[in-house]
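Researcher: Please translate sequence to structure tokens.
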Amino acid sequence: MKKSPQLQRLEKMLRASKISSCGFLGIDQRSLDEIIEADAAEIARLDKTNEQIAGRMRELTAAAKTGLGDWIKVTEYLEVSIDDSRGRIPCPWSHGVRCSKMITTCRRLDTKVSVRWSELNMHMIEAHGIPLEMFKIIRYMSRRIYLLYF
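Model: Translation complete:
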């Protein structure tokens, strides 16, 4: 199937570009369509939706904000913290949304496994229905989605 010019521009922007020197796709050489299809299948297998995932990420980010950089215990197994950087980053969809550069870290207390995400990650998952693996910052999260639900 031939890609539309809009999808071609978007994929080029999601690779290394002026928005992100490393790109949002990391080292993955698959096409954007292949990545989205594979990630959608993985999320369905986990019986979650993009909206549920983004919603849980927002809940955990809100809890982290109360700690002002300190770790906040949110469940028996989870703690969260937030690092705030100055500035904003635009959404690659070029529709005027600019997100803060704050990074939320969520860590399991029993395994010490952690996941990090940004406001832009949450926006793109929620607003554009884009599965998790697109974002290098939480690239491995689809295999560890359980982390957010304990």
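Researcher: Any highlights?
Model: The helical segments are 5-14, 32-45, 50-65, 119-128.
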